[in-house]
Design a protein that fits this description.
single chain; Gyrase A, domain 2; Elongation Factor Tu (Ef-tu), domain 3; 6-stranded antiparallel barrel; 5-stranded mixed β-sheet; 5 helices; YgfZ/GcvT domain-containing protein
């Protein structure tokens, strides 16, 4: 698989600027931004006060210009509105930014793209580079976002289609395994519940890839271990899907919609 370039029309940017942007974000999201370096991106989320996942985001340090938040395009207006509520007296400017987002991935991706604003995807090295206003590099193959989703599914990396909004705890969506939570940074919205789950080891379910023959069962299809409920199917394609799985019932004879399935635990999970 050569270097593949794909525009991400599902993503959009929020520009943060002003002298307080860093301290403003630091008290809100799951990721540490105080040590973020110019040109670096970090993966994180904004949670509900009860600790459930509202919006995923990448914080991209733009140096003196401030930062970008790389977010789901459909959630940008709601996220901006929520940030405005939290702003209070902080000296931070919050604006929509129409700079396009793209990705570069594949077996022949250079150690670092030579031209344009590129930053390594902080979740997994195999996810390649995220570009902001970056053109397709010489020799790369132009693709659509569906190819990116296929790659994520192959790697077992869940996305917004799997966790929705205000339904899932970030640890259940593997944010702790994908560099999405800094447990040493101090307070953030939803921090108490998140830290308690990690500290007590009360993680009973996670999003993991499943394999099967034929088309993917419909989202919401129940997964059974014998007669016991073991989870449900989330997003997927032919032969593979992401599922919400009970960790104590992931072994044995699993079925979904009457068909046999198997959990394929990615190496990066350490499970």
């Amino acid at each position: 698989m050569s270097a593949i370039y794909a525009p991400l029309k599902s993503r959009a940017l929020i520009a943060l600027s002003g002298e307080d942007w860093r301290s403003f974000l630091q008290g809100l999201i799951t990721q540490d931004v105080e040590t973020l370096a110019p040109g670096e991106a970090r993966f994180g989320a904004l949670l509900t006060p009860q600790g459930r996942l509202l919006y995923d985001l990448f914080v991209v340090d733009r140096g003196e210009a401030g930062a970008w938040l790389d977010v789901e395009a459909e959630h940008r207006p709601a996220l901006m509105q929520r940030l405005m509520i939290y702003r209070l007296r902080a000296k931070v400017k919050i604006e929509a930014d129409e700079t396009p987002v793209s990705i570069l991935f594949g077996d022949e991706v250079p150690a670092r793209p030579a031209e344009g604003f590129w930053t390594a995807d902080p979740r997994l090295a195999d996810l390649g580079w995220r570009g902001y206003g970056a053109e397709i590099p010489p020799g790369a193959v132009l693709a659509d976002e569906a190819q990116r989703e296929t790659q994520k599914l192959r790697l077992g990396v869940p996305g917004p289609a799997d966790w929705g909004s205000d339904k899932t705890y970030p640890i259940e969506a593997n944010f702790d395994l994908l560099n999405g939570i800094d447990f040493k940074k101090g307070c953030f919205v939803g921090q108490e519940t998140t830290s308690r789950m990690k500290r007590r080891g009360t993680i009973k379910t996670r999003m993991l890839p499943i394999a099967f023959d034929g088309p993917a069962p419909a989202p919401g299809t129940e997964i059974l271990n014998g007669d016991l409920r073991a989870g449900e199917v989330l997003s997927g394609a032919d032969g593979r899907a992401i599922a919400f799985i009970r960790l104590d019932r992931m072994e044995g004879q699993l079925t979904a919609d009457g068909r046999p399935i198997r959990v394929e635990t990615p190496v990066w999970t350490g499970l």
